[in-house]
Amino acid sequence: MTAPLHEPQPPGPGRALPDTQQGMRRRNLARVMHTVSAEGTLSRAAVASRIGLTRAAVSTLVDELIRSGLIEELGPERPGRVGRPGSALAVSAHGPAGIGAEIGVDHLAVCAVDLRGSIRAKAVRHGANRGRAAEPVVRELTELVRRVVAEAETEGLWPAGLAVAVPGLVARDGRTVVRAPNLEWHDVDLGALLPGDVPLTVDNEANFGALAELWLGDSTPRDFLHVSAEIGIGAAVVVEGQLLRGTRGFAGELGHVPVRPEGPACPCGGRGCLEQYAGEEAVLRAAGLEPGEDRVGLLAGRAADGDTKVRGALHDAGSALGIALTGAVNLLDPESVVLGGALAGLAPWLLPSLEAELAGRTAGPACPVAVSRLGPEGPLLGAAHWVVRGVLDDPAGVAARA
């Protein structure tokens, strides 16, 4: 990998900058970056109008960002207009990129996303990871990371950081997987196993999925409960545009909420957890189907064809989801619930029973349920965009390390 970076973590969204003259300059650079990124293309004058600085001040900031390779000029903004047209600005399609990775129970995935949000390289490996030691899994992930970085470098990109989504509890140090029951991992320090030449952030896959929904969703509110599923089921709570992490960073373990306390044992040590009724493998068992590579496709196809046993299994899974979500909705009063991950592909058969449980059990008005358009790609995209947002939040810091 080129452009070695030796910080423990990327800047990350929302990172506080010092309240000094230098800190003010860095904040203003970030304001320019976010404004141009959000609008697509803008002139210097338009940026000045948006953020309330003088044109001269904005021009100085823009020139610095252009020299750093983070913003580029595209030519006259509106040819043919009366008066001298401004030069259109856009965040660069070259330079720093966010590298996102995902460790799933049955797959590994890595992608590179540029500052414009475009996926420029991607690699996926399918295969079971459950019960395997962390070291060989991470070695395979590292090879995928290197392949994606090499492909991105051919297009003029370099890694600004690596963010890894995992199906488990992650310590607040942003590198240690405390517990991942469906992988059978405990106290795994991914920071010691992954390459040390880029800043690293590790987080729960549901958290990254929720952030992807917040940043990339069409009309996602700033207060919502995001639920995603693979073998397990995770959730993330977003309040006023920020993740609610909890004291130890473990908030959102919806899959281990008991919906039937007398139910089957769960790998977490409990009984009757939601995952035992609404996780992919649980639904396949209830439907009498064998697990395959495309479990969601198998279930959706059979359900669409009218298979009554599959539809019954999905109906029961939706009911279990509704029971578990009722407690969260009553406690948190979110604006909406968003179904992501595998649940998005099964929504037509899950929603009727899920919504019926919510309507019948919540204390207030029924909470609306939306379906994510990102589906199973959410955690991977959220991880990559975490790094990209870190660049937008502190462009000066990133440029200094290039």
UniProtKB/TrEMBL annotation:
Annotated ranges, domain HTH marR-type: 30-81
CDD domains: ASKHA_ATPase_ROK_BsXylR-like
Region named Disordered: 1-21
Top-level taxonomic group: Bacteria
PANTHER family: BIFUNCTIONAL UDP-N-ACETYLGLUCOSAMINE 2-EPIMERASE_N-ACETYLMANNOSAMINE KINASE (PTHR18964:SF149), ROK (REPRESSOR, ORF, KINASE) FAMILY (PTHR18964)
Family: Belongs to the ROK (NagC/XylR) family.
Listed name of the protein: ROK family transcriptional regulator
Source organism: Streptomyces fuscus
